[in-house]
Amino acid sequence: MINKSDNASISPAIPEPLSVLGIQVVPFESYSQAVQCIDEVITSKRKAFWVAINPRKVYQATRDRQLRSILNRADVGICDGIGVALASKLLNGRFLSRCTGCDLFFHLVSNAARKGWGIFMLGASPESNEKACLKLQEMYPGLRIVGRRDGYFQDSSTVIEEINASGADLLFVAMGSPKQEFWISQYRDSIQASFCMGVGGTFDVISGKAKRAPKVFRKTGTEFLFRLVMEPRRLKRQVTFVPYMLKVFKEMLFGPSEFPNA
To answer: Which residues contact 165 (CB under 8 A, 6 or more apart)?
Structure first.
């Protein structure tokens, strides 16, 4: 895996990350800037593992030593949630532009179709995975999906062999978070694809199994409100936002807290 100190040699365009409760988040100004950085990684045949950082993931990392280590050892963390953008404003004096994992996925797939890069789709149910692949090839003519595999497997070594045999340039893993980050981190050294990123429920959205929040919610960063209305069972996941913000206010007033060592 690439060390963060190597980022400058891979892509000088990657901005210096900012800390949100000890988790490093890169302040990209636009999706095109992020895509350019990934473009350079693939062109130079390097390796990179990017993670989408949201409040729930940050809060979990303050309580989970292993997750904290994985997030901070990833090459780039992107600002996936409005709560992370607000926390950065309070802690660093800088409001971050959001760069969501779902939207970055679509930008990367579009770029891959133009440049002929191969992608591997790993995760979700067999039905969602198949439908998502078919839909993407309709949306992006010429897209090379060189391999796909649902997330219901027992033998990771066989899956990694499939990924490597496909010659994929980009690997997208839809196993849910943080399971997908743990899996990528564990096997990154064995995976030959230049770029890896977990994309959560993105395959379900593309396949139509899950409904994406309307544009007005996405633009304002309030997708979580839409998801709560559509799926009330998600309330348990969202309640972490309160203790998360309490930790943010505490750090703003009293300085960084001691979290599990990464």
So the answer is: 147
Q: Are residues 7 and 94 in the same domain?
A: yes
- Same domain? For 74 and 122 the reply is no
Instruction: Return the exposure string of 24-36: e unless at least 16 CB atoms fall within 10 Å of the residue's CB, then b.
Output: bbbbbeebebbbb
Provide the residue range defining the domain that includes 20.
1-99+224-262
Q: What is the pLDDT of residues 158-214, one digit of tens each?
A: 999 999 999 999 999 999 999 999 999 999 999 999 999 999 999 999 999 987 766
Decide: 48 and 75 in contact? Cβ < 8 Å.
Answer: yes
| Residue 135, CA distances (Å) to 86, 140, 204, 206 in order | 34, 9, 11, 7
> CATH number for the domain including 123?
3.40.50.2300
pLDDT tens string 8-21: 444 457 999 999 99
Cα separation, 252 vs 85, whole angstroms: 14
pLDDT of residue 62 exceeding 90, the answer is yes
Tell me the sheet residues that pair with 78. 52
